[in-house]
Design brief:
alpha/beta; 6-stranded mixed beta sheet; Alpha-Beta Plaits
């Protein structure tokens, strides 16, 4: 009788289980399934040894008892494989209706097979101290059932491979491969009882690769890391249990007056403090940011008060350092569509301060969630519009007061949804900027404008140029000038037909890049207009700094001129100074005849607004300027 492999398997499994249970763990479903596999495997190994001992001493024991123990062992092999399948199902499907149904089916199959193993005959083979094993219909049924379960497991893993990370897929495959190899060897050579030990080695692979609790711990603080949080929120998907989330951010790392030792001391103090919070899972996001997950919303609100009270006191070795904090609070994840939205919502809340509580924190409410989802929807709409060529250019004519004709036009980006309806620019422009889509969108609009000028030749109908808007992000894009020049060359377009509108803003991070882009484009003949003058973003200093040719008075400034007596003096002064610099002026937002006449009498060069035309699509605009040009010729 040789039970060395089984004994080694038990010792190895006990070491794994001891190491696992003595470490802090996150409450994951796969962890529970892993523990179940360990327990079932340990029971199987014990039954394997018991069966071998009984077979070796069968002449001294009741044959019925030996048969029962041996059948319990072979049935346990089915349960081991079934629990491996159960582990994979929990990992793939998490806690969902699909997983519940599959797990219930697995349990029913295992019970039925166990009963079948029990009623079928089983024989034992004993060569004294050399080898002992079992055979017969009961054992053959066990192997057939195990092969069926293995095939089911392989099928699920292949069909749902996108739901498993390569790391998990490879670890489970290695585990399964070891078990299959041992089962094949034992099937053809019953004297080599390797299945139990091979399964233990497979469990060791899973432990080291997937279930080692240390993998989910932050090395510096001992708290859970973001990998653990990702697994945790993935588990939340499909569960009806909701939690409260506190995102805590403090700023000791940015304090240059602190020594490295002091910063490390503060970080450890903060981590130790957060670790004392009851009924709370704490995850370290980054050096100075932590997520607190609490199942009780009222307890979470108490935690916020505790945090603010503690951070109102000093930290550090000498307890002299005051540490500023900010926090974002999600009262309940039930307001989210899915658990995976937690981190995007927290980022959005930090970027767009919503309903605030006290001075430091932001409470995420349903309106903020709706804004985020709407922004996401618009982002997808922009992407699809770019891919499906649903981006259009509308044109609004600009009227020359001096020449009494339509002198130019402003090109405006528009996109259509799948139903052909125009998406208002106010809904998608800022989203395109925030999501990094504005570069591609702006380049496409410029390409369409150049194609329009090259093919339709609007200058033959009096238009001297077309104005194209540049966003703040485009202005700071290093390759803007090179890309635009290449597009104009592609259409063999004279740059004199292009005026680029820029909005000077403090948010332009790289002004040198903007000026370099302007220099390159002006060298080839492109001119520039300063847009939105009078909105608070642009002023006379910008006009001095920027090499612009045209200044556009925003509709806000124009409307203020008619509504506010003081604004008249401001606009008059600005207009005379700008004209004194030999720059042209466009007044936007003109909607009525009296407004037009007033602006014309003031000496404004160009008028733009609904008084003449709203922005219209390309074909209609072309017909519009042709018609106006013919009227001009007939006069």
């Amino acid at each position: 009788m040789n039970i060395i492999a089984q004994c080694c398997g038990i010792i190895l499994l006990i070491i794994i289980m001891y190491s696992y249970h003595t470490q802090d763990k996150i409450r994951l479903n796969t962890a529970k399934a892993f523990v179940s596999v360990c327990n079932v495997t340990l029971g199987s190994l014990i039954l394997d040894i018991a069966a071998a001992v009984m077979i070796a001493h069968c002449e001294k024991l009741p044959l019925r008892l030996v048969e029962i123990v041996c059948k319990l062992y072979v049935a346990s092999l089915v349960w081991v494989v079934m629990y491996i399948l159960r582990y994979a199902i929990v990992d793939i499907y998490q806690v969902s209706e699909v997983s519940r149904k599959k797990l219930k089916l697995c349990q029913i199959v295992a019970i039925c097979d166990s009963l079948l193993i029990y009623v079928l005959p089983l024989q034992v083979f004993d060569e004294g101290n050399q080898a002992v094993h079992t055979y017969g219909p009961s054992v053959l049924t066990t192997y057939i059932m195990m092969v069926g379960i293995v095939i089911a497991l392989a099928t699920i893993m292949i069909a749902q491979k996108t739901e498993m990370t390569p790391r998990r897929r490879n670890a489970i495959a290695a585990w399964l491969g070891l078990w299959i190899l041992a089962a094949v060897v034992e099937f053809f050579n019953g004297q080599l009882l390797l299945v139990g030990f091979a399964n233990t080695v497979g469990i060791l692979v899973i432990y080291l690769r997937l279930e080692n609790p240390e993998m989910n711990l932050d090395r510096d603080t001992g708290l859970f890391n973001m990998s653990a949080f990702s697994q945790y929120i993935r588990q939340l998907h499909g569960k009806e249990t909701h939690v409260s989330i506190i995102d805590l951010i403090y700023t000791s790392g940015s304090d240059s007056s602190m020594s490295y030792e002091t910063q490390q001391n503060v970080k450890q103090q903060v981590a130790d403090f957060l670790g004392t919070f009851p009924e709370t899972m704490v995850f370290r996001v980054s050096s100075d940011e932590y997520l607190l997950v609490i199942e009780d919303e009222e307890l979470a609100r108490q935690h916020i008060k505790t945090l603010e009270a503690r951070f109102s006191e000093p930290w550090g070795q000498e307890y002299l350092r005051m540490i500023p904090i900010d926090w974002v609070f999600i009262p309940t994840t039930s307001i989210l569509n899915q658990a995976e939205d937690i981190m995007p919502v927290l980022r959005y809340a930090k970027q767009h301060k919503g309903l605030r509580e006290r001075d430091h924190g932001t409470i995420v409410d349903t309106s903020m969630i709706e804004e985020l989802y709407e922004e996401r929807e618009i982002e997808n709409e922009i992407i699809m519009a770019l891919q499906e060529d649903r981006v259009e250019v509308f044109y609004q004519p600009i009227y020359s007061v001096k020449d009494d004709l339509f002198h130019s036009a402003e090109a405006l980006a528009r996109i259509r949804d799948e139903n052909g309806n125009i998406v208002p620019p106010g809904r998608f422009i800022h989203v395109a900027e925030e999501k990094g889509l504005i570069i591609r969108l702006g380049e496409l609009v410029f390409d369409k404008v150049c194609r329009f000028i090259s093919e339709e030749k609007p200058h033959e109908y009096g238009l001297q140029y077309v104005e194209v808007n540049l966003s703040v992000i485009q202005c700071a894009y290093e390759h803007l000038a090179d890309d635009f020049i290449e597009i104009m060359r592609h259409f063999e377009l004279d740059p004199k037909y292009i005026v680029l509108e820029i909005t000077e803003s403090e948010s332009i991070k790289d002004k040198e890049t903007l000026l370099e882009n302007m220099r390159k484009l002006k060298e080839v003949g492109v001119r520039f207009a300063l847009d939105d003058f009078g909105t608070g973003q642009s002023n006379l200093n910008y006009i001095v700094d920027m090499p612009v040719d045209v200044v556009k008075f925003d509709s806000t400034m124009t409307n203020a001129y008619f509504a506010n007596g003081t604004a008249k003096y401001v606009m008059d002064a600005a207009m005379h100074m700008i004209q004194g610099m030999d720059l042209q002026i466009v007044s936007e937002g003109i909607e009525e005849h009296d407004q037009y006449k007033t602006m014309a009498n003031l000496g404004i060069d160009f008028i733009q607004g609904y008084y003449f035309s709203k922005p219209i699509e390309e074909a209609k605009f072309l017909s519009f300027i042709k018609e106006k040009h013919m009227e001009q010729l007939s006069d």
